[in-house]
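Ticket reopened. Same input as before:
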Amino acid sequence: MSCVTKVKHPLIQHHLCTVRDKQTRSSEFRAAIGRLAVLVGMRATEDLPLTPVKIQTPICEADCQRIDVRVELVPILRAGLGMVEPLQGLLPDAAVWHLGLFRNEETAEPVGYYDKLPKSGAPNVALVLDPMLATGGSVEMVIERLMSWGVPDIRVLSIIAAQAGVDRVASHFPDVKVFVAEIDPDLNEQSFIVPGLGDAGDRIFDTPQHG
Ligand code: PRP
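Engineering reply: fixed in the latest deploy. New output:
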């Protein structure tokens, strides 16, 4: 069963206006990506398993529940960095494993350039962070890497995806859950999402490459 979830919330629609708008300044863009990341992240973590614990309050003992599986973050450099701090707000003890990929501008194929994952010790749940899922090639490379590391539960969190990209990931990895704020219909000839938001990495770090 493929598992692609488009998260619905009025605040998502509202903040998508900001990230789509080409007039939005980099600082505002980063802030809006952060808010959207939290909204998507809440949904992507809503079924994490809980274990009962006893907590001593200042008054008496209380029956509580705590997440006791390892949930860790895997941002895809560079743009995924824009989602790390917002997700750390939800999961303050989550380790962060960076994977560096860029798309070859001619072929749109991902090229890996940074990977320091250890040989063992994979977390129970990995949250892959990247604001854009276009052709799906980058996310696929990361999913394959996390599977080879031994992560049993891989969840992809993105802000805007192209229909072709989510279809590709869902058909190749039916057990991987994908959570997105919006799914756009098309890719252009440079494999950018249409209408999309442009290049998320360049907009987050204010490093325009085109014009
Ligand atoms: C963008 C984006 C994704 C990838 C999506 O990164 O942040 O990582 O492209 O494309 P795909 O689904 O077709 O693989 P980019 O290569 O622009 O690198 P950057 O984050 O360093 O800007």
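Residues 4-205 form a domain with the Rossmann fold fold (CATH 3.40.50.2020). Residues 76-79, 101-103, 108, 110, 130, 132-138, 165, 191, 199-202 surround PRP (CB under 6 Å). Please confirm and we'll close it.
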